[in-house]
Design brief:
The complex is a heterodimer. By secondary structure, chain A is mainly alpha-helical. Chain A contains seven helices and no strands. By secondary structure, chain B is an all-alpha fold. Chain B contains five helices and no strands. Chains A and B meet through helix 3, helix 5, helix 6 and helix 7 of A and helix 2, helix 4 and helix 5 of B.
Chain lengths: ~180, ~140
């Protein structure tokens, strides 16, 4: 609860902040809080990913972006009733969706009755790997993880092409001029 | 640009532990939390930390750009190659039981191989992103 309150404070700070440098640092802080929440939920793998990607790498990449662009947020027109309406409706729909969720840690929730018992009983005899999360990710759902790896590969190649290609064009233009 | 003395010494002290932790997360993924993705990001974080503190040139001496860009597709190839090895042995794509005569042992090995592939692609992609952004920001 304390963590969630802190997260809400950070979000409000991000919204009111005009300096983009502050926003980047605050979103790093938000990621660390999120990682702490995930540790409270015993999801250490996800917490590790959140701390290293959300707070570490993406903060650095965003700072790198800030070095390339202006660091002040452009002042937007504050009166947009349609945007407010959409935000409220989507927010209300999300809250409404959570109302039907089983409470946290319920043993007979749907998610614990489908494939989870099969994995828990069969992972060690079938794969020799005590960590069920690893076995599910790399073996039972190996095809999905291959897809994820390919997504990272594609995204990396795309960013490299975009940044370098534009840079080369600028070089060429400078030479021509 | 030279970073502060405390920053430089502190970074130097931290670096081996970050790398060790990344390797631990990678090879202990079968038993504890984590796996290729987390290890990849942590090891990439080490190179990025070097880049922030000691400058891009030092980071590129540690992880040369050509090597990093070679590793981006290499990881996907390791992963897909593991799958194709299963096909060549007459089983399904990504069926790891072929890596040992005892099927669970083979699946354990297969998981190690694909996690290695994930590690290679994730870490090199993160480093390559960092290089791309920093080099773009350089006044040429």
């Amino acid at each position: 609860m304390i963590l969630l309150t802190l997260m809400a404070i950070v979000v409000i700070a991000i919204v009111t902040q005009r300096s983009l440098f502050g926003v980047v640092i605050l979103s790093g802080a938000y990621s660390f809080l999120m990682a702490s929440v995930l540790i409270v939920y015993d999801a250490v793998d996800v917490a590790m990913t959140e701390a290293s990607v959300g707070a570490g790498v993406s903060t650095v990449v965003l700072l790198g972006t800030l070095a390339l662009v202006k660091t002040r947020e452009a002042r937007a027109d504050a009166r947009q009733p349609l945007a407010l309406f959409v935000a409220l409706v989507v927010g209300a729909a999300l809250v409404w969706g959570t109302l039907q969720l089983p409470s946290f840690g319920t043993a007979d929730a749907v998610i614990h009755r489908h494939v989870a018992p099969y994995y828990l009983q069969n992972v060690v005899p079938q794969t020799n790997v005590p960590n069920v999360v690893t076995a599910v990710l790399a073996d039972y759902r190996g095809y999905d993880t291959l897809g994820e790896t390919t997504v990272i590969f594609t995204a990396g190649i795309g960013v490299m092409l975009l940044l370098r290609g534009a840079w080369r064009r600028a070089q060429r233009n400078r030479k021509d001029a | 640009m030279k970073a502060d003395l405390i920053l430089r010494i502190g970074t130097k002290l931290l670096l081996p532990f970050i790398l060790l932790f990344a390797l631990y997360v990678q090879f202990h993924g079968d038993y504890g939390a984590g796996g290729g993705f987390q290890a990849g990001v942590i090891s990439a974080g080490m190179v990025i930390l070097i880049g922030i503190t000691f400058g891009l040139e030092t980071a590129q001496r540690v992880a040369p750009k050509t090597l990093v860009e070679f590793m981006v597709p290499l990881g996907v190839l390791i992963y897909a190659g593991t799958g194709i090895a299963g096909m060549l042995a007459g089983k399904n794509f990504l069926d790891y039981s072929v890596f040992s005569s005892f099927a669970p042992k083979g699946r354990e090995r297969g998981i190690l191989f694909v996690e290695l592939g994930v590690l290679v692609t994730v870490s090199s992609t993160m480093i390559a992103l960092f290089y791309a952004f920093v080099e773009r920001g350089r006044p040429q």
